[in-house]
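Below is a filled-in request sheet from our internal design queue. Each sheet records the structural input a requester submitted and the sequence that came back. We keep these sheets so that new team members can see what a complete request looks like end to end.

REQUESTER: design group, bay 2
PRIORITY: normal
MODE: inverse folding
CHAIN LENGTH: 287
BACKBONE (tokenized):
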């Protein structure tokens, strides 16, 4: 069976989609399509391992990998399972200011229709005064899911129970933005492949958009969509994607200083612990 040589394990809304697309451009690197196989971190995977490995059958002598951000969220079980099946795999982690990650993830879920937005919901989720109907695989509340994804120290410690630090490459979102080629070269070196000049794609992958004045119409559409003929959706997919632009814009909703301060307080201990783990000053994340 063919196992991956590397896995991008997270974290969500930290630039992993862009990183995986950069990796896939390298002539010696193979990334599965779709990139997120979401295999580990679930019970009862032993009998399904051959199906998982089939995703890496067409790598053609390239270094192969996948990228599933769920492996960070469900790190307790995922880390143990990955070590069991792929003990020498190289793990890549992308980290972003957890406050900004929370904000981006919240609006991303509104964007994709997983959460129905109403006024004050963002602040209400932070304060735990407004509940969101949510059905994740591992029975976390929506608020807990958003917060836990940014508790990087907790998740990294779960992986460090099974993997040496040399097997884990940590990338910071701001570093990738500020010096993309240098960061990519460090990843290529980690994977054991040659440096390569990678042009920035014209498309921004997995970009978060924000609800506009017609959000209520979009919510109605999300409720009606399951009852429409499948052929109608498939045959008009491009038109529907274009129509969605009426419901969302690139204008970011307010992120108040009060909301940032509350999230900074929630993440302070985790950031302090992360600083020790990665030996890097992250004081700019604490405000």
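RETURNED SEQUENCE:
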């Amino acid at each position: 069976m063919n196992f991956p040589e590397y896995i991008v394990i997270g974290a969500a809304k930290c630039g992993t989609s862009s990183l995986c697309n950069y990796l896939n451009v390298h002539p010696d690197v193979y990334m599965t399509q779709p990139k997120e196989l979401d295999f580990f971190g679930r019970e009862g995977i032993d009998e399904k391992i051959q199906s998982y490995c089939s995703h890496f059958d067409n790598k053609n002598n390239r270094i192969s990998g996948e990228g599933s951000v769920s492996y960070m969220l469900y790190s307790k079980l995922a880390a143990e399972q990955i070590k069991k099946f792929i003990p020498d795999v190289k793990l890549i982690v992308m980290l972003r200011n957890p406050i900004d990650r929370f904000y981006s993830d919240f609006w991303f879920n509104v964007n994709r229709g997983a959460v129905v937005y109403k006024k004050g919901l963002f602040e209400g989720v932070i304060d735990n005064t407004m509940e969101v109907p949510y059905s994740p695989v591992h029975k976390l509340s929506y608020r807990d899911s958003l917060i836990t994804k940014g508790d990087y120290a907790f998740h990294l410690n779960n992986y460090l129970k099974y993997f040496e630090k040399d097997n884990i490459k940590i990338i910071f979102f701001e570093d990738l933005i500020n010096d993309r080629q240098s960061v990519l070269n460090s990843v290529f070196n980690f994977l054991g492949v040659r440096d390569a000049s990678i042009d920035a794609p014209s498309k921004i992958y997995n970009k978060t958009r924000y609800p506009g004045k017609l959000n209520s119409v979009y919510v109605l559409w999300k409720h009606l969509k399951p009852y429409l003929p499948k052929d109608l959706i498939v045959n008009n997919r491009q038109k529907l994607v274009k129509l969605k632009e009426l419901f969302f814009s690139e204008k970011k909703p307010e992120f108040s200083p009060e909301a940032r301060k509350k999230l900074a307080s929630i993440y302070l201990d985790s950031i302090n612990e992360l600083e020790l783990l990665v030996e890097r000053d992250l004081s700019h994340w604490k405000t």
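SHEET NOTES:
- The first strand starts at residue 6 and ends at 10.
- The chain has two domains: 6-110+138-204, 213-246.
FILED BY: M.R.
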